[in-house]
Amino acid sequence: MQAFQARDAGSIPAARTKFIHVEEMTYSDLINHEPFHKIKTGRKTIELRLNYKGRDKIQVGDDFLFTDRETNETLLTRVVAIHKSADFETLIQSVGVRKCGCDNLTAQLEILSKFYTQEQVEKYGVLGIEIEPVREK
């Protein structure tokens, strides 16, 4: 089971803006070494997940901190788009398999089937979280 957490990163005081409250979220998740490396090197820009356990709250502009399960290295990324679908095959076909870090659809679906059952996919639907690394200034 993969960890998934969110924390409130602050708000803007109401007196300084017409908006009452703005939540900036940072999510964190463990990820296997190979996909971590692909994200780090830019060969994977979409992380595929079930749409459950708070993931439906992820928004464009939120930060996503990935931790490599093998090395404990971390990588801060920013969400640039959210793609939703009823199943992984439809989602991958719409965004492109290479963005998901794989060379072909069949191989990608086999990888995903090791983590998620068909029943889970049908119950929750799926997300493609499009990300880009946050570069240090």
Report on this structure.
- By secondary structure, the chain is an alpha+beta fold.
- The chain has helices spanning 33-40, 88-95, 105-113, 118-124; strands spanning 4-8, 25-31, 46-50, 63-68, 74-85, 126-133.
- It has a single domain (4-132), classed as Hypothetical protein (Archaeosine Trna-guanine Transglycosylase, Chain: A, domain 4, Roll).
- The chain has a 6-stranded mixed beta sheet with strand order 1-2-4-5-6-3.
- A hairpin with a 5-residue loop joins strand 4 and strand 5.
- It is globular, with a radius of gyration of 16 Å.
Please give a quick description of this structure.
By secondary structure, this protein is an alpha+beta fold. The protein starts with a strand and ends with a strand.
Q: How would you summarize the topology of this molecule?
A:
Layout: E1 4-8, E2 25-31, H1 33-40, E3 46-50, E4 63-68, E5 74-85, H2 88-95, H3 105-113, H4 118-124, E6 126-133
Please count the helical segments. 4
CATH topology: Archaeosine Trna-guanine Transglycosylase, Chain: A, domain 4
Give the helices and strands as they follow along the chain. EEHEEEHHHE
Q: What sort of overall outline do the alpha carbons produce when their principal axes are compared?
A: globular
Helix proportion of residues, in percent? 10-25%
Low-confidence stretches: 1-22
Q: What summary fits the major beta sheet?
A: 6 strands, mixed
Q: How large, in whole angstroms, is the Cα Rg?
A: 16 Å
Count of structural domains: 1
Q: How many runs of DSSP E, i.e. beta strands?
A: 6
Beta-strand residue percentage:
25-35%
What is the CATH-assigned architecture? Answer: Roll
Which CATH class applies here?
A: Mainly Beta
Computed structural class: alpha+beta
Biggest β-sheet: strands ordered side by side in the sheet: 1-2-4-5-6-3
